[in-house]
Backbone:
């Protein structure tokens, strides 16, 4: 890749999260340590973004998600494509195909497990041949979960001489808003599932993103509204667990079952103590269920999309992004009953302020820190970026990773 002009091209730079990524890249890599460019389908919008931020010397590239020639021209010029163009199940197929065919590394912030599985089935063999490293889920879903488990297991190995065979992740605190892009991805996944019984079965399989030969058979925990004595509070199912848990299990499989063949992992949101905590857990659970049911019914979905939910291009304002944050605790136990706890925190709105920084640093890590002899294929953040990305996130992205007493 020595002849590539750019380390990173930000594709979809004018999207809601793409603009946040572009601002962060401009601030973070002003020293020239990363050579980057912005890309999208509208030169006028790219120029407007460039003028607004003041991107002097940052090249603009016109490329359309449906135009293979423009995508090939873009991919030929860069080591890594950072894509924010979602819903990926609607707009992401061709770009992954082109990256794979040209041996260009790729990362994104998708949380769409059905699309990731489709890309794996279609392109993994070719990615291995071409050397393209494809890394999905480089935002809030699923870097804190994937790297959080990786971080805990590394400490468990040192402290106990073995990894934990059970880890419970608890979202202790999370503040931030949803964007129209995230909602659009959720709506599209529900639409697909309503008409596809095979997909509905796939979405119930915690190992759906693992390689076919994974061999995992242990039944994973079914998180319900409950009091968690280990944490000391009421818990409810975490809406992003569906993608996060699958990425964690894929990391286990890709690392030769380093967490164990019987590894169990679950995620939940802590809602508080006492009666108020229980009521909050119930309200959260019922609210998510009601939303999913509503999205599955076309007339209600139309009302929600047009009058209730944020539209693509809409999301939390800069003040909300700055005031947001997250605090996640991981509680691990070995087969012998030894216990360990770690924490991951972020200093911005998790879905956008922090996600933009995580995605940018993942792309930088892929471009600069991963040796070229690392094989192509569909990796996870923990398995291909690992400790190097943790170092970047702590130094430059406002995240912390710590072992608790």
Residues:
């Amino acid at each position: 890749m020595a002849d590539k002009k750019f380390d990173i091209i930000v594709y979809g730079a004018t999207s809601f999260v793409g603009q946040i990524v572009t601002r962060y890249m401009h601030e973070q890599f002003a020293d020239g340590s990363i050579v980057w460019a912005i890309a999208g389908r509208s030169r006028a919008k790219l120029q407007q973004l460039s003028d607004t931020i003041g991107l002097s010397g940052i090249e603009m590239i016109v490329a359309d998600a449906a135009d293979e020639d423009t995508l090939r021209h873009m991919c030929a010029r860069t080591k890594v494509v950072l894509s924010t163009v979602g819903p990926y199940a609607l707009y992401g197929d061709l770009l992954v195909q082109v990256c794979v065919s040209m041996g260009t590394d790729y990362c994104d912030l998708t949380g769409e497990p059905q699309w990731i599985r489709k890309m794996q089935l279609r392109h993994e063999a070719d990615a291995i041949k071409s050397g393209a490293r494809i890394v999905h889920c480089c935002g809030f879903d699923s870097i804190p979960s994937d790297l959080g488990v990786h971080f805990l297991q590394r400490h468990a190995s040192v402290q106990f001489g073995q990894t934990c065979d059970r880890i419970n992740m608890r979202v202790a605190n999370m503040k931030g808003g949803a964007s129209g892009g995230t909602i659009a991805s959720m709506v599209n996944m529900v639409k697909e599932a309503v008409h596809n019984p095979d997909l509905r079965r796939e979405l119930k399989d915690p190992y759906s993103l693992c390689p076919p030969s994974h061999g995992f058979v242990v039944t994973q925990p079914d998180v319900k509204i409950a009091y968690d004595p280990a944490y000391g509070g009421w818990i409810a199912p975490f809406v992003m667990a569906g993608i996060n848990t699958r990425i964690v299990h894929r990391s286990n499989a890709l690392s030769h079952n380093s967490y164990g063949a019987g590894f169990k992992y679950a995620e939940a949101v802590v809602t508080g103590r006492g009666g108020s905590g229980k009521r909050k857990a119930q309200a959260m659970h019922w609210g998510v269920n009601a939303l999913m049911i509503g999205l599955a019914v076309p007339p209600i979905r139309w009302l929600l999309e047009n009058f209730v939910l944020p539209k693509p291009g809409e999301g939390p304002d800069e003040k909300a992004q700055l005031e947001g944050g997250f605090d996640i605790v991981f509680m691990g136990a070995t087969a012998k009953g030894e216990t360990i706890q770690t924490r991951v925190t972020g200093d911005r709105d998790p879905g956008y302020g922090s996600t933009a920084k995580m995605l940018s640093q993942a792309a930088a890590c892929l471009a600069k820190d991963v040796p070229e002899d690392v094989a192509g294929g569909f990796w996870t953040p923990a398995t291909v970026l690992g400790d190097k990305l943790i170092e970047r996130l702590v130094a430059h992205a406002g995240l912390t990773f710590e072992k608790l007493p």
